[in-house]
């Protein structure tokens, strides 16, 4: 754990929803800055993120400093009442660093260097990179730590680099020594008796580079842990510098990518004052809103309260194969969805769309069409609405009865290339289960398997392939204490070293679910399904023999598994050995939730309508393009319009109401 959490998001919001975005004024002449300020004020922007990619501008040659332009900007923002989220520029080092110190450049698993010319070309393990990053951070923090425009520190940007190079290998060895102490312990954890991999000297241990055939799973797993830890060290080093230079009420964040494999975000969140995320659902994805909901639920759970939507797009992104704009109203709908799920900041990449560089076709709040453009006009309307509701929502919490469990280490372990089915993807399974709950209008938190789960009526485990002993004990204690647990397939298979548990699934968990023997796993091919007496299963099935206490709720029908349990229950513990088709999973989870005493937010909601409670407010969101009428018992005031509604509400295309009793 780092130093205590002195500051929080509330210090930056002060009762308003932060509204704004990444601002890259160095791409524009100074006249444009004044135009920007006029438009920002027009749109109700109260926060901009400066400096994310400014290292070359701040330090054009080694050791030089050019702060004049940033001084003028900080003052300009302050004069106009716009807060600054100031970024350390360390995610994109200037070209001179790579030229003078090629060892700062990351190396991929094939030994190829990643050169400057793009971004994020730094090695997390490079002592020289870290020294230069610390130096520019120090000077930036010393200069602006006390500036009145400063509302938050933003460290680096989307930490996401891997490095297989020599310096990283040396660091990896040290990390492993710290973890295991002896080579014997490492050999045991990695199971190096297999394929003659035993290490006799630390110098033989490497980052998992290109190999002829399947790599050692333990080595790959520890490399992922190491990468997350190295990046975290980089973050913590800069965080501690900026904290030294700024007053206690300035919180620190770094922006996550949603469900990004490279960072154990549970661990990282503990080191942040504000948990922030960048969220870009595809406007064409019929489940874009659910993807948003999942990321928002996870971010709020990591934050344990209000969180920051650091980046979203006002229109199209430019990194999908085909990049679609947001239809009229969608930006507002998805922004208010984030607020419903706990966001106290609604921000964008970026303020003004670039005219040059790799992202010139990525939207901005002010697009190429400028002030008259639909995108800016919608942004402006949204800004006014956020101002209206800010005082009612900021700081308020949500309470959910369901926790969905997720753990990066389990994801990493289960992703090894030697698994039984490459069709099984942790995030896809997680998404399928969250989607089923979302469609059943059940709102959820996320939790780590070792967290205290006692506040929840229902704990949902889509898939936790690897579980530590404390996690298993936690799940058992949760059910013993009266909780209901429902788990998907491939859970509890391995321990923390990715060693398969005796019997293919931990014996305590088998006891919990009423499984006597897990004979074989039967993965399914693309398009293949398996019949049961209740639904069709997809992706996976299992040859399970029921044990004492187990009740077969749904049985496989026909085929090799006919008569064996597809869904097995032992009291309040449920085990689902396949992935039911979406409508069936939804029905099953709704049934289990109902049995656990968990009810949807509102009854009888149409499919395209989402209802979310935040504090004493009820957000009702229509994700459809057709208008819809929804029963809402009682009398409410819609904070967006001031109108009073009784008994039911009608929402137009992408309509939203924020109802106060
Ligand atoms: C984020 C990044 C931004 C911008 C954006 C485009 O990943 O932090 O700098 O590139 O994506 O969608």
Automatic annotation (TrEMBL):
It catalyses: Hydrolysis of terminal non-reducing beta-D-galactose residues in beta-D-galactosides. Residues 22-388 form the Glycoside hydrolase family 42 N-terminal domain. Residues 401-598 form the Beta-galactosidase trimerisation domain. It holds the Pfam family Glyco_hydro_42M. The keyword Hydrolase applies. It comes from the Bacteria. InterPro entries: Beta_galactosidase_C, Beta_galactosidase_Trimer, Class_I_gatase-like, GH, Glyco_hydro_42, Glyco_hydro_42_N, Glyco_hydro_b. The keyword Plastid does not apply. Residues 609-660 form the Beta-galactosidase C-terminal domain. Keywords: Glycosidase, Hydrolase. SUPFAM superfamilies: (Trans)glycosidases, Class I glutamine amidotransferase-like. Its EC number is 3.2.1.23. Belongs to the glycosyl hydrolase 42 family. This is Beta-galactosidase.
């Amino acid at each position: 754990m780092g130093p205590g959490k002195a500051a929080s998001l509330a210090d930056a919001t002060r009762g308003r929803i932060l509204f704004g975005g990444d601002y890259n004024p160095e791409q524009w002449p100074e006249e444009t800055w004044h135009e920007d300020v006029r438009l920002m004020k027009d749109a109700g922007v109260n926060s901009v993120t400066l400096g994310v990619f400014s290292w070359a501008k701040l330090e054009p040659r080694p050791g030089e400093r050019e702060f004049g332009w940033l001084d003028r900007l900080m003052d300009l923002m302050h004069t106009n009442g716009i807060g600054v989220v100031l970024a350390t520029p360390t995610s994109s080092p200037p070209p001179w660093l790579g030229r003078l110190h090629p060892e700062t450049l990351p190396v991929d698993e094939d030994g190829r260097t990643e050169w400057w010319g793009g971004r994020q070309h730094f090695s997390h393990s490079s002592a020289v990179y870290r020294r230069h990053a610390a130096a520019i951070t120090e000077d930036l923090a010393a200069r602006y730590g006390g500036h009145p425009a400063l509302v938050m520190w933003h460290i680096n940007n989307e930490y996401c680099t891997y490095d297989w190079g020599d310096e990283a290998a040396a660091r990896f060895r040290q990390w492993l020594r710290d973890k295991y102490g002896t080579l014997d312990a490492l050999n045991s954890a990695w199971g190096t008796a297999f394929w003659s991999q035993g290490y006799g000297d630390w110098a033989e241990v490497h980052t998992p580079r290109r190999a002829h055939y399947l790599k050692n799973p333990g080595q790959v797993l520890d490399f992922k842990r190491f990468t997350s830890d190295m990046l975290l060290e980089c973050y913590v080093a800069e965080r501690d510098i900026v904290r030294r230079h700024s007053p206690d009420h300035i919180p620190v964040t770094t922006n996550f990518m949603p469900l990004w494999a490279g960072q154990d975000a549970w661990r990282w969140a503990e080191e942040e004052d504000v948990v922030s995320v960048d969220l870009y659902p595809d406007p064409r994805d019929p489940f874009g809103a659910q993807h948003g909901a999942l990321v928002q639920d996870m971010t709020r759970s990591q934050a344990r309260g209000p969180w920051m939507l650091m980046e979203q797009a006002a229109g199209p992104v430019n990194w999908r194969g085909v990049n679609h704009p947001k239809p009229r109203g969608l930006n507002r709908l998805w922004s208010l969805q984030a607020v419903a799920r706990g966001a106290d900041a609604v921000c964008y990449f970026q303020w003004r769309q670039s005219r040059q560089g790799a992202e010139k076709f990525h939207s901005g709040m002010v697009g190429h069409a400028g002030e008259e453009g639909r995108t800016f006009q919608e942004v402006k309307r949204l800004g006014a609405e956020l101002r209206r509701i800010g005082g009612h929502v900021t700081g308020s919490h949500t309470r959910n009865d369901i926790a969905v469990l997720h753990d990066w280490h389990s994801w990493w372990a289960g992703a090894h290339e030697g698994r039984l089915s490459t069709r099984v993807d942790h995030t896809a399974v997680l998404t399928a289960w969250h989607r089923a709950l979302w469609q059943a209008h059940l709102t959820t938190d996320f939790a780590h398997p070792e967290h205290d789960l006692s506040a929840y009526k229902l704990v949902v485990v889509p898939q936790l392939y690897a579980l530590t002993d404390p996690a298993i004990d936690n799940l058992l204690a949760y059910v013993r204490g009266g909780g209901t647990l429902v788990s998907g397939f491939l859970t509890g298979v391995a321990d923390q070293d990715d060693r398969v548990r005796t019997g293919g699934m931990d014996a305590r968990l088998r006891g919990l679910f009423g499984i006597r023997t897990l004979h074989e796993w039967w993965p399914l091919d693309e398009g293949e399904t398996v019949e049961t007496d209740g639904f069709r299963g997809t992706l996976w099935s299992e040859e399970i023999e029921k044990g004492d206490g187990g009740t077969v709720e749904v049985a496989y029908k026909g085929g090799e598994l006919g008569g064996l349990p597809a869904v097995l229950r032992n009291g309040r513990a449920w085990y689902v050995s396949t992935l039911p088709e979406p409508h069936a999973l939804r029905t099953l989870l709704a049934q289990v939730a109902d049995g656990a005493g968990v009810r949807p937010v509102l009854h009888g909601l149409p499919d395209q309508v989402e209802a979310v409670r935040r504090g004493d407010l009820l957000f009702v969101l229509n994700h459809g393009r057709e208008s819809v009428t929804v029963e809402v018992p009682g009398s409410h005031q819609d904070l967006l319009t001031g109108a009073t509604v009784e008994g039911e509400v009608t929402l137009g295309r992408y309509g939203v109401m924020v109802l106060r009793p």
